[in-house]
Amino acid sequence: MTNKLEQRHHWTFCVAALGLWLSYGWPVWKEFSAGGTIRDVTVSPYFFIPFAVMGLAVLAAMTMKLRTNVHWALLSVQLAAVVAMTVIVPWAGISSFLVVIAWQVGMLTTPGKALSWIAFQNLAIIGTLAQSLNPDLCWVLTKSGALQLLFVFTAQALRREAEASRELTQANRELKAAQAIIANNVRDAERLRISRELHDAWGHELTALGLQLEIASNVAEPERANDHVLQAKGLARTLLGKVRDVVATLREAERCDLKTSLDALAKTVPTPTIHVAIAAGVQVDPEQAHALIRCAQEAVTNAVRHAQAENLWLQVTSDGDGVRLVARNDGQVRPKTTAPGSGLLGMRERLEGLGGKLAVRPGPDVGFTIDAWLPKRTPQLA
């Protein structure tokens, strides 16, 4: 819910920013069309080149998923466009474009860096206006500067709210995962109790089977011996059927536990949208299920905190002599030089401790993939 609210704020400002861009370009266009002047300067058609560049840079920065350094580059392009417009038309009102940049900076970085950028861009515009005859610097320092500060602090408040929401979502996700693991352990203990009860119950039939075979081996009459052998065969078939039923039920329970846990994990995160797919016939024991759930949890954390993805696909399949979990998102590509975090290192150690392995790789254009593999083991029936 909070993420949807954040997105709504973002798109509302996108529309407002483009509206401001057009509204401050309109008077310049009117004067240009009428052959008039602004601050005694004839409007040059070259004004509309940086004006268009500004609009395109704002649109790209607000609608595209970009790396941080690319975003800063677009902000620099926007500031350069505003400076160029001010050089061509030395009108203090053009500094209102800085409000758009201020909002983006406030959403992108910390308060200290944001305020430093605001000071820098205002000094750049003041220095540009100072070259004209009627600089009207008071307008820049008061109205435009105040609006920039207002938008920076508003953006910072929304940014802190979004970060708090992500941390709360992460804590809730970890709690849900812990609950799923505890539930698995409870079910494992219950299955152990049931298996012991069945063992005790089968003890009677096994004893009866042994007695029938013992009698058959000691009876001299062929007909009596044959009757006891047939009874023993019937008991053996009954016991074999019960064993198969219990094994099939417990194996199915293992598959359901993993899918239930992953589905529960998916429901705890509003964004990204998590798509869970588990192939038929996948068999894991409780320890492996625990490891795969932890890997999926780390993949979700990576998609939320680092990739800012919109979708995450979790796919569990049988792979030769093992089981494989592939987690792929469509978020930002992590730089190849970035060292793996403690979450990925812990995941690798967990898998290697079970004889498995982990591979992480960025997508060609977008996204990040985590590939976890565990060797096939006989699922525990307990």
UniProtKB/TrEMBL annotation:
Domain of life of the organism encoding this protein: Bacteria
Keyword Disulfide bond: no
Transmembrane stretches, start-end: 12-29, 41-62, 74-103
Signal transduction histidine kinase subgroup 3 dimerisation and phosphoacceptor domain boundaries: 190-254
UniProt keyword annotations, A-Z: Coiled coil, Kinase, Membrane, Transferase, Transmembrane, Transmembrane helix, Two-component regulatory system
Name of the protein in question: Sensor histidine kinase
PANTHER family named in the record: NITRATE/NITRITE SENSOR PROTEIN NARX-RELATED, OXYGEN SENSOR HISTIDINE KINASE NREB
GO MF annotation, one: protein dimerization activity
Signal sequence bounds: none
Domain (Histidine kinase/HSP90-like ATPase): residue spans on this chain: 290-377
Keyword DNA repair: no
Coiled coil spans: 154-181
Gene Ontology cellular component terms for the protein in this record: membrane
